[in-house]
């Protein structure tokens, strides 16, 4: 099977070409109160200091929501992103910062469920199977 990858499908976060943060989703991310708080230290050094629109891109679709820097979180439409992408507790999301401008704050989001990107899978197929063989990312 041949898979045609678009630019939206390419993964850069493991190469450090673009700034990113990742998060494993918990109950408050995927249920009421439907909140996603960003890592404070990362956000304060990478993101605008003004509130404004933020766009999440995934699977060829866009979700626009409000970014609030004083609380370092996305609000208002995060719930739509969760529902549309059928996110569950334990899923992981990697947010690549595509545009840090206050007028066009944009992230490309990679969703990891029970699959791993080839870059991680190639490290060792046996890692993560038991607590005695954890996955270690340097």
From TrEMBL:
The keyword Transcription applies. Gene3D superfamilies: DNA-binding pseudobarrel domain. InterPro entries: B3_DNA-bd, DNA-bd_pseudobarrel_sf, REM16-like. The keyword Transport does not apply. Pfam families: B3. It is found in: Nucleus. Its main location: nucleus. Residues 21-115 form the TF-B3 domain. It comes from the Eukaryota. GO terms for molecular function: DNA binding. One of its GO terms (cellular component) is nucleus. Keywords: DNA-binding, Nucleus, Transcription, Transcription regulation. PANTHER family: B3 DOMAIN-CONTAINING PROTEIN OS06G0112300, B3 DOMAIN-CONTAINING PROTEIN OS11G0197600-RELATED. This is TF-B3 domain-containing protein. It comes from Castilleja foliolosa.
């Amino acid at each position: 099977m041949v898979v045609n990858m678009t630019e939206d499908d390419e993964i850069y976060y493991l190469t450090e070409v673009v700034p990113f943060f990742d998060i494993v989703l918990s109950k408050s991310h995927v249920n009421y109160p439907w909140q996603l708080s960003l890592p404070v230290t990362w956000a304060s050094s990478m993101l605008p200091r003004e509130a404004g629109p933020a766009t999440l891109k995934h699977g060829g679709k866009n979700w626009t929501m409000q970014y609030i820097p004083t609380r370092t979180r996305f609000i208002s439409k995060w719930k739509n992103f969760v529902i549309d992408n059928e996110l569950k507790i334990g899923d992981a999301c990697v947010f690549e910062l595509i545009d840090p401008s206050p007028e066009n704050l944009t992230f490309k989001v990679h969703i990891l469920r029970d699959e791993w990107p080839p870059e991680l899978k190639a490290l060792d197929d046996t890692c993560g199977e038991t607590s005695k063989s954890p996955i270690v990312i340097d």
